[in-house]
Amino acid sequence: MRIHDYVTSSAKGLSAKKMRTVLTFLSILIGVCSITLISTIGNSGKATINHEMDKLGLNGISVKSTKKTLDEKQLLNQRDAAALKGYLGEEFCVSASLNNYSEIEGLDEEVMVCGSEKDMLSIMNLKLAYGRGITLKDVENETQIAVIDEKLARKLYGTEEALGQLLQLNGSEGLTVVGILKNDDEITDKLQIQVPSFVYIPVTTAQKMLHTTAVTAISISASEDKNLDNYVPGIIQFLEKEKNQTFKAENLNQQKKQINNIADIVTLIIAIIGGISLVVGGLGVMNTMLVSVSERKKEIGIKKAIGATNGNILLEFILEAIFLTVLSGITGILSGIVIGKCLTDFYGLIFVMNTDIIWVSFAVSVVIGVLFGGYPAWKAARLKPMDALRS
Questions:
Q1: Fewer CB atoms inside 10 A, N or C side of the chain?
Q2: Which DSSP string do the residues of 178-233 spell out, in sequence order?
């Protein structure tokens, strides 16, 4: 028999019982589609999380004291930040920060007040939509100014162009808005994630409000070609020598890796569950092929009587199973990609398609066809012509 004959015969065999073929087709399609979709959503979610974390400045480190103390001489301050800047060099962005939640007049929710220096916006990867950021003079003169984001500006003043407006925080004399930061909250809004608004003010102004000369932490970032992990021991040693205190550096890149590992594990577990449906689909293929062999015994007997070998019959039924599983597998892959693209677009995620999982899904489809179609095909090939014709 020629290949064309095998393909024609397989197609006729599958089309003989359309409903049974369609149900088996759907069982494989759903399994492959679920694995492709889970992989796509998992990788897209991970890429989006990384993108959002990078935008928040989580590609740096934050240095804090390891123990609480009331002695402000042992606590970090902006002079330590300046000394650390001199130690590291101009290629690094360094900022002292003093963070505290505060109520704000005209708003029913608390905001995060971030006392910071001029480098903080660069460290946090924040972009200005209007106005300016915090300057060195603002820090030196304890200027009563604030930089807020577009979302907070709309809540308070009904417009994003809120430069010159007065902002009243607890403990402040009234702050003048001098800068509006760009917002990119499409993803958090669609996922209904509550993210507090940030108000950036000079660190010295924050210290005056809280009656302290210390800061919460020193934040550091550098260009992407520099691995901050290599600088952490030197930074810690420098500060401990200056302050007679122990410090720790929170490597926010490491936290990002941990989140990625968790996302990978969750995606793998769900994909394995989806893979179980493929096994169930494979059993459906075997059942379909066994019934097909039983119904086509007479056909098998005639073919053997006119010269078809066991190998011819075996190959015909295996090709029939492979044809069914590969077609459903390809359709499942395409369905998973299309559904994944629609979902990522709807939720504003970064679409990432894993080509490896596509090839794996395709290979699994072929393997299912061979494994679960092999036994029925072997059973068909073993039939004796006279027994087949008699049945």
A1: C
A2: EEEE----HHHHHTT-----EEEEEHHHHHHHHT-S--SEEEEEE-TTS-GGGTHH
